[in-house]
């Protein structure tokens, strides 16, 4: 708490000496707050500019200003501001699948898009170049395809763009658990005519964890952007993202079950599992790199037709350790912890994409308008993942298991495990060596026959051409599989630009390849999984745009899942493709500028997901109830102009990370993570040339767990102070 006091003292000192502020700003503070809080218009939800009030799809967005006020510097932490989103797993940095996982509408999702193109980041995602974070709710296969879109929603990172004046800022941050950070945002016109523009965002972070403050996890981001406005019709954009990471993964506890004598995490803590203990030694790092290159040519053919040509290449790499844990019982019934490793060695995965879009916008007759996007997309996914693990714990190298309390955990370290990996007989591995070519064409149309009525129709045709290869060391034959993905929507603005009623049908799909369908070991190509959503609700944008709210009810049915029969042949599970998930729920999201200087963002979401074959909620569906809010007050005039305060919180109900029907088809086995309510607070002072701020996250010191069929303890109380110089 000393760092909190220092930050508060610094804030008070600067306020004492800040007698005047330059009121000549590019935008009035109040206008900035209103646009930040309530403006939810998007260029990406339908691959065309649409106002939120006329869009039949539900969209949540988080602005850069919100992140600055809350002193948030990662996308993973920004998720706290998205209604109906629950984080399940922080980034492990493994190539291919190492990014953070979340739940949306009962289905697993991750941040997989940047500016509408496939661009997964498998490390913790630095937010230094984020202008806005968008979350499109529901299946979005029609415009975004099957490879990265979840049935529950799509996460899209909208990046900062260059502008025509010189400017920028430099920030220094420091806080709990040996957290230190430096970041910079520099914008500069490179030519006198302002046609060539450069913007560079970069950041370096070093931090420990609440369990291991000397961990020295390091994160480096470098994200330059170049824009060339050749004419009023032709524009070229080039962006680069580099994220380099050397870090320990969070403590993941697997294989939790009632066999431990308890069926929930709160009782397991009471039984002896130490929330604050680090069960690993030194140097069990994973080194990871992400390199994304994005090129775009925008051409205005005429006043009604625009072309956008996009080329994107994303690469992920990892090498290092992946420690994880399980909990067991000692002979005296006290708890023990077993320690394992699943690392990666020179593991790589890449995505190369070419996408061409044509946008048409015509008005005719008396108030009639038609907007269309038509495009085609090529995506090549190249997977060279290599995972290794210790076949058997080697006696004498480190003690396993150890007591959950008071044990010596330092012997589980990088030197010990590295030496074990030096002996090939200790190593097991499962590799992926496979290529997938995906070819797609799509069209989406927004027709406005009369003012206030929008009819949306769209369809996609996608062909997945798997080139064959090894999947987890299993030779897999090539296959080709195609699918259609339609969508439809209707919006009627009962009060123009203020109140609308909407409904949508959305679809998505996924190719699962071959499966073993009988005990003779025969295989066949599975049919595509399919998800169909029906949704309806209301949107408001009232009091001059100061209150934006959405309430909706959705019903998603996803079928053709591959499910295990409980039988095996040649170590392969015998499966059927009769699995079905039924997910339905309601969401309310409000973004409001209530009175002068006071704003609120928040919402509540309820989800009821069911595995139709068992009648049980899937263990990866997250909590039934989720709630979030952030209330902020900022002085917009007077001697305290620029001073702001905020308080927020996140609620999640109980989360069953184990929920299985046993072989007798009667007994249900569960393990539950308890509900939580985490509170955060912040204060800042924003002047013309400088900005200072302080935040305290989880200030009630809540013990809370998240999990993706696992239990992962999260940060206790932590504080961060920020000083920014603007130029």
UniProtKB/TrEMBL annotation:
Topology versus the membrane: Multi-pass membrane protein
Gene3D superfamilies: TonB-dependent receptor, beta-barrel domain (2.40.170.20), TonB-dependent receptor, plug domain (2.170.130.10)
All residue ranges annotated as the TonB-dependent receptor plug domain in the record: 54-147
Pfam families registered for this protein in UniProt: Plug, TonB_dep_Rec_b-barrel
Keyword field contains Membrane: yes
Keywords associated with the record: Cell outer membrane, Ion transport, Iron, Iron transport, Membrane, Receptor, Signal, TonB box, Transmembrane, Transmembrane beta strand, Transport
Domain TonB-dependent receptor-like beta-barrel: residue ranges: 313-698
Subcellular location: Cell outer membrane
SUPFAM superfamilies: Porins (SSF56935)
Membership in a protein family: Belongs to the TonB-dependent receptor family.
Stored PANTHER family: FERRICHROME IRON RECEPTOR-RELATED (PTHR32552), FERRICHROME OUTER MEMBRANE TRANSPORTER_PHAGE RECEPTOR (PTHR32552:SF68)
Protein's name in the database: TonB-dependent receptor
Lineage: Bacteria, Pseudomonadati, Bacteroidota, Flavobacteriia, Flavobacteriales
